[in-house]
Design goal:
Blueprint lengths: L2 H4 L1 H23 L5 H22 L3 H5 L2
Helix pairs in contact: 2-3
């Protein structure tokens, strides 16, 4: 898909937003020691960080399909 290759500014903004939100949630959940809510917040933050990584790698996936 060429959408992410053509719209780099949108991709960079989404990556930065997902990264900062994910990192904030992980740190916020980490401060809730001994509470199940803190663990759930950290898991949501981890999911956002993985989404940011997947969005970063999306433009490079087409090269592997051609091999």
């Amino acid at each position: 898909m060429n959408f992410w290759k053509e719209h780099t500014a949108l991709r960079v903004c989404l990556i930065a937003l997902l990264f900062l939100a994910g990192l904030g949630l992980v740190i916020d959940g980490w401060t809730m020691t001994g509470q199940m809510t803190g663990l759930l917040i950290m898991i949501v933050g981890l999911i956002l960080l993985v989404l940011a990584l997947a969005l970063y790698n999306k433009p490079f996936q087409d090269k592997e399909k051609n091999r």
